């Protein structure tokens, strides 16, 4: 597994396999993003000055011969344009909260104006219900397959396994597997359920919720940065990426401060960034 950003970094890969797909963080922020229009904390002011400190709402995309979205954040149209993506083949959701769902309406135009019959979609039954409650007018073009816990589906040569996490009912993290890489993506979760933790132990890459800096006022639904690091390293992951970063909930932290805090981990723990791409 290798990594590409606008400033490339080298990432160790345990298996030595040949990457076949690209995993891109579309957004890496918690709800309201960074900067938030209503906030003038040090983290938001830094993001106004420093483009690489800016974060849209969380989502990801996996690209090989086809394109698979993981969530449809409200910033989706701008994120897809930024990444040069002209078509989406299917969507898989972690859950149905607005910051992971709100951009779905952008895909209606792609399907209807593009003359497609439907868009293949995958989610838990609870997320499926939540999605259709918000986007009932797209019911005729969303071709859903419900995923039960531990179900897996192969899309474009990548295997996705739905693993329960500690967030809203029906929320999944996804174990994303190619011949070269085992990657676990859990953008919204508190400490992982034991069965999920054991399933993802030893992954090459983990992208984990790290919403809060210091005090965590939602410990049943999210990690703090410090809690995410503790859990990720205890599971012997190769490289841990911190995502769903609020940067300004409760105690603000600037990107410069956060990167300084991570220096002792010598690259094993990294801050995810919007547009960061991993070869998997």
From TrEMBL:
InterPro entries recorded: Metallo-B-lactamas, RibonucZ/Hydroxyglut_hydro
Domain Metallo-beta-lactamase: 55-244
Descriptive protein name: MBL fold metallo-hydrolase
Organism: Xiamenia xianingshaonis
